[in-house]
Design brief:
The complex is a heterodimer of chains A (about 140) and B (about 400).
Chain A: E1 5-16, E2 20-26, E3 30-31, H1 33-36, E4 37-38, E5 43-44, E6 56-59, E7 61-62, H2 68-77, E8 84-87, H3 92-101, E9 105-107, H4 110-114, E10 121-127, E11 130-136
Parallel strand pairs in A: 2-6, 3-7, 6-8, 8-9
Antiparallel strand pairs in A: 1-9, 1-11, 2-10, 4-5, 10-11
Chain B: H1 5-12, H2 17-32, E1 38-40, E2 43-46, H3 51-67, E3 75-78, E4 92-93, H4 97-109, E5 132-134, H5 137-146, H6 158-165, E6 167-169, E7 180-187, H7 196-206, E8 211-213, H8 221-234, E9 241-242, E10 252-261, H9 263-270, E11 280-284, H10 291-304, E12 311-316, H11 320-323, H12 325-333, E13 337-340, E14 348-349, E15 355-358, H13 361-370, E16 374-377, H14 380-388
Parallel strand pairs in B: 2-3, 2-5, 7-8, 7-10, 8-9, 11-12, 11-15, 12-13, 15-16
Antiparallel strand pairs in B: 1-6, 4-14
Helix pairs in contact in B: 1-2, 2-6, 3-4, 5-8, 7-8, 7-9, 8-13, 10-12, 10-14
The chains are: A alpha/beta (about 140), B alpha/beta (about 400).
Chain lengths: ~140, ~400
Amino acid sequence: MLNTSVATDLKARPVVPGSCSGEVLVLNRYLSFFGEVDPETGCLRENELICISGKILVFKGSRGSTVGPYVMYALKKSNKAPSCIIVEEVEPLLVAGCVLADIPLFTMSRDDISRLQPGLVIELKECGGLYCVEYRV
Amino acid sequence: MYLTREQERLLRGDYGWAIAKAMELLVRVGDAVGAGELVEVKHAHVSGISYSNIGKHGLDLIIDFYRGGGRARVYTTINPGCIDYSGFSRIIDNRYYMEQRAIDNALVNMGFKPVFTCIPYYYRPPLPGEHLAWGESSAVIYANSIYGAYTNREGGPIALASSITGYTYKAGLHILDNRVGRIRVRLDPMVEKYPVGAIGLWIGENIREIPVLTGFKNMGFGDLKVLLASMAASGSHAIAIIEGVTPRKTFSLEIRDEVFIERGDLEDYIGPDVSSRDSVLGYIGCPHLHPLELLRVKNLVGKYGGVKRGGLLITIPPEYLTRFHDIVFYLKSRGVDIATGTCPVVSVFKQRYDVVLTNSGKAAFYLRRIHGLKTRISPLEEVVKYVCGH
């Protein structure tokens, strides 16, 4: 595989900064880590073929129980955590979960998210306070 | 966010992993919600400690915080766990006894007061304007609305982080300008006989902004507690301005709209009728009973002589077992099932019933969702009468 990158004009705002690269997995919905993600396998309970481990997990925002942060911590401990998370909306429990589990967290506009290609490998690189998205090809 | 030099040292890790992690948690969450600084808290109340809710991962995290040097820096109480500490209950399942005890040990060793109750204001009633970091939505709304204290709904591990650092992020209800009542809520006089649990569920689900409850001041504190807890369960309310109750200068009013709750509004929230073939569990104590309510239940049970059909479960703080042992043993001798330091919302049932009849909208809301039980809301007297009055 050629290790070149292609810059885009997509930008992400860091909430929990950190390095972020991997394959994009887009879930076009709200997600509750408690109940909807199996912390042992890192896969969704409703569809075990969809696994978030090591991915750049993109979804609308988090919902549900205050137990969510514990599940994110568990994912990290069993080495099944996503590489980083990109959402449209942040809420305190998601931030808390990402801090506890050392998972970088970013927000992006809905338009920018819709332009992310699922399945491609991208990297987020710091550029002037924000993070710029680069495709790895 | 602005940090003092001491706060920077805490964040940098000069005092160990646990405190650094806790500070990072508060600073990051604070940044995300637009807080400009941290504020000192007087009392932290840590929720999310029931093993049946948080599981092995929650247990691991709490133990990591303990081993990492986390210790209470401010007065800290803890929420109910998932086991009955009295050992009396035949209804609450103690299957996670060892796991819950492991969580409890870590919490107690961190210096938290093991009250195992959702009414921390029984132990330390807050003062108006005091900053708190409380988890447990029913306690949060009670602290803000009844005592005029300042606290957000601090979910999960954030209250724990506040306990071991002594701070929380200054945003939301910690700022007077955000404590503004906008929708006036009145009750149709016909509704006043309706269970307050159902009224609370209605308000929670139908009102988004901070409600101003007018004409509620003559409700007893037990009923207000159930009303507020139910609002906080079905909505995400953390405060209601109760005219004549909420301390002045802890809120302001900018009324934009007024709603009138009528009888027809509440039918859906009360739940289905109970048929005579159903096995019925009466449940009182969500949130945990205040001693005066315990006395009221005792007098009611005494009037009817005892439990005659189905069961009657009450949940109370473990301390009542010694302080009010006369009442507790009287109730036990009349067939009442007593569980201390827990409640059905955070534990597992050993026995199945067809219907749970309760005065609490919060209990009804969660028992439907978590345990898939049929629930019906009735006033406290009616709950006791149903199981004792035959």
